Automatic annotation (TrEMBL):
Protein's UniProt name: Alcohol dehydrogenase IV
Top-level taxonomic group: Eukaryota
Amino acid sequence: MSVLSAEEHPSTQLRGFYGWTDSLKGVYYGPGSLTTALPKLRAMIGGTKALIVTGKSLYHKTDVVKKVEEALEADDAYGGTFYEIGEHSPIAGIRAGMTAFRNAGADHIVAVGGGSPVDASKAILYMLRDEDGGELKRQIAIPTTLSAAEYTVGAGYTNDEGNKVSLSDQALAPSGIILDAELTLATPERLWLSTGMRAVDHAVENLYRPLVIPPIKALCYQALRDLFTYLPQSKANPTDVSIRQKLQIASWMSLWPMKLENYSALGLSHALGHKLGAAYSIPHGITSCLTLAPTVRLKARTASQEDKEWLSGALFYLRESGTGSLDKDVAKLADLIDRLVTDLGLKSNLDQYSVPRTDVPKIAELALGGQTKDFFDVVALLEGLYTTSV
């Protein structure tokens, strides 16, 4: 009997390395955990005075930031609140945040909100270290969406030219994370559900992202099961804190902290989202609603055997039967993602965001990093995101 080599049977190539991010001390989770977890995390990092970094809507339209302020004031650790962080973290807000941090005499940041405040806080601390020297100051993240920016060592922000750029450092991962579902009740439904689709995007693209180890992919399978189960339930029962808490845990599983040498987009769906988001003012959760299902459908035709096997495996966790064909299994997963977007009321198209059709080749080229492989397939994918085909 002949035995296949690893090269002939790529699914047997199970080798790699896993390490925890150096800076992350811990994740506290549970409804009402803010008041008990924040002092513990501050003690772990030796933080004495915090600057809260958040967005205007969360600051002005909810009492979430006020609750964090009160928790810090109780320990005489409140240094101020900076809320000039816009969507996609514009560089102007980051520069102003650096000034606010210095003026407050702060030694750490407490980021409250979605991916923009968390990423902006990373950029603020990174640039402060570049300008002032010394050790990188620390961040505690309190997310109110499901975007999962708090689990990465990189940060994306929008530069002066309006382009999304990134920076990366192992020390940039927040030192502490608090998942208190009660603080998410004020998050607008469309933002909450669309960032849930962002978490779906993370879980799916981690199934074919290079260097992701099998145990992490198993977490992604469970994340997909929970996201497909609880996102529709959360839409139907928006005040159910227990469902929201399960979704926060699913978001965590979708982008479990890993030590990777380079910070980059997880895959094509994320790369397209980065190029569409800041340039055309499309929220990242919505870009995932637009690009993920078509990307998976493309993978059914172009992905490696290994990647197709991992994608096909998701059907079992979604309680869906296989088709008997890897290609058809992957296409079925794409259909399920598309149906979830529809069921959540998140369907949109590029016409709605006034993305010029003449920009399609440029967007494809930027998303592919200048590589020519799959260029025409990606152009066709983007053309399919308009109201009518080109």
